Structures are given as structure tokens and as C-alpha cells.
């Protein structure tokens, strides 16, 4: 999931980009800002991956604003004037969109952004000898040891990693996180749950029993996941 802020002093331009963004499942619009000062506060408040940043704005241009940022997100510049393109690309912008922006041109820019931001990886996967991952949460990378994970719960675009000592909430999909976890330690047991296999205490009907905070907790087993889970248990692969 890519977290986005739009910055533009034209309401129509804001609405057009919002409409485009809302059609994409992997883009999360955090805020629309009408000037650089609003955008600056938004960046302080949110964990921003990408700016759609208008160049021609009153008081402070988009380029000057972007130059002022200490640790800037990725940027796609938008403008009605093509003569800024060279300067935009010199700043390592992902793309440069000239208004009026068409949907197909917007999609090309988003595909570039998805590839570049995706390569940064929201989760660091350790080598085979490592027993931890780093997940992006609260504007930092948090180390999570595999042995500390009880289970992982999906909640729309977020996942909650439930651990022996607290929890970590990260903005990504269950599918994305599942692909980065070692299969020997974790198993998807439900569309909303990934289980740490070493946490299984018992399987009762269509539920798995684990211990959380000193108490027995039951997690549901989805019918599409039950057979494979039982196969793992029967083969003593825990």
C-alpha cells in the first residue's frame, strides 16, 4: 500500500487526482493540501510514501518546497507548464505530469512509483539464518522476532502483529506480509489470521487454541485452510 498526499492550489486538480487515486486498490490517499505549508504539516503527521506535487503554487513553489524537505518522500510533479520538466527530473522525480492529466498517463506514473517504492520494501526479510523481520510502523522500522509472534490479524489495509509483549500495527495487506514470512514458522489459517505454528496448543473443531496473556484464546480456521493445517500437524512439522 502506497500512502499519498496531493498538493495543489487548484480545487479541480485536487478532485481529478483524488478520483483517479480512488480507483486504485494499492494507493491510500492520506490528505489533500492546497499549499506547501499544509503539505509540510501533513508530512510531519503522516507516514507518506509519495507526493503528487504541483509546481506553480503561491508563496512557495512545489520545487522549492520539495528542496526544503530533509527526508522527502518520492514525488510526482504536476503542472500546466512543460518547461519545468528538466528541473523536475534533475531532482529524481518519479514522473512529471502535464495538466490536464489523463487517466492513462496517470496510470503510467503510478506504475513507476509502485515499482520504485515497492523495491524499498516495507518489510526486511532476514536470511535463512536470521529469525526476525523489520516492519514499517509509526514512521520507523521495528524489529520483530519470529518467536515473539503469536498470530497476525488482518484489518482492512492494516495488519496487527500480536506478540508475547504487545503488538505492532503496520499498513500493508495480509497477502503482502504472508509472502515475506518463512513457511516453516507461519501458516495462514483464515483470511484474517496468520498463525505462529509453534504457538498451537490444541485444535478443537474449526478453531486453534493458543495462549495469549496467560489465557486460552481460540482462533478460527477457515475451511480453505483446514486441510493443509491438519497435514502439518499430523506430520509433526511444528
UniProtKB/TrEMBL annotation:
Segments forming domain HTH LytTR-type: 133-235
Statement: the UniProt record of this protein carries the keyword DNA-binding: yes
Keywords: DNA-binding, Phosphoprotein
Pfam families for the chain: LytTR, Response_reg
Entry-annotated residues carrying 4-aspartylphosphate: 54
GO MF terms held by the record: DNA binding; phosphorelay response regulator activity
Domain of life: Bacteria
Keyword Manganese carried by entry: no
Residue ranges constituting the Response regulatory domain according to the UniProt record: 3-114
Protein name stated in the entry: DNA-binding response regulator
Protein source organism: Portibacter lacus
Amino acid at each position: 500500500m502506497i500512502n499519498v498526499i496531493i498538493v495543489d492550489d487548484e480545487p479541480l486538480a485536487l478532485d481529478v487526482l483524488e478520483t483517479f487515486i480512488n480507483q486504485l486498490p494499492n494507493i491510500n490517499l492520506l490528505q489533500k493540501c492546497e499549499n506547501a505549508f499544509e503539505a509540510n504539516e501533513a508530512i510531519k503527521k503522516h507516514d507518506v510514501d509519495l507526493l503528487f506535487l504541483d509546481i506553480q503554487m503561491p508563496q512557495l513553489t512545489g520545487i522549492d518546497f520539495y528542496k526544503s524537505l530533509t527526508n522527502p518522500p518520492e514525488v510526482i510533479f504536476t503542472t500546466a507548464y512543460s518547461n519545468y520538466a528538466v528541473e523536475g527530473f534533475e531532482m529524481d522525480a518519479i514522473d512529471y505530469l502535464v495538466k490536464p492529466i489523463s487517466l492513462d498517463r496517470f496510470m503510467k506514473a503510478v506504475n513507476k512509483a509502485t515499482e520504485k517504492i515497492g523495491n524499498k520494501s516495507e518489510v526486511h526479510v532476514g536470511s535463512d539464518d536470521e529469525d526476525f523481520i523489520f516492519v514499517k510502523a509509526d514512521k520507523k522500522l521495528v524489529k520483530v522476532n519470529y518467536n515473539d509472534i503469536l498470530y497476525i490479524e488482518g484489518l482492512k489495509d492494516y495488519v496487527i502483529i500480536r506478540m508475547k509483549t504487545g503488538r505492532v500495527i503496520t499498513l500493508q495487506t495480509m497477502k503482502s506480509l504472508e509472502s515475506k514470512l518463512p513457511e516453516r514458522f507461519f501458516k495462514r489459517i483464515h483470511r484474517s489470521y496468520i498463525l505462529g505454528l509453534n504457538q498451537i496448543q490444541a485444535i478443537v473443531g474449526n478453531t486453534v487454541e493458543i495462549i495469549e496473556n496467560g489465557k486460552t484464546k481460540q482462533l478460527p480456521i477457515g475451511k480453505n485452510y483446514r486441510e493443509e493445517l491438519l497435514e502439518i500437524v499430523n506430520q509433526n512439522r511444528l
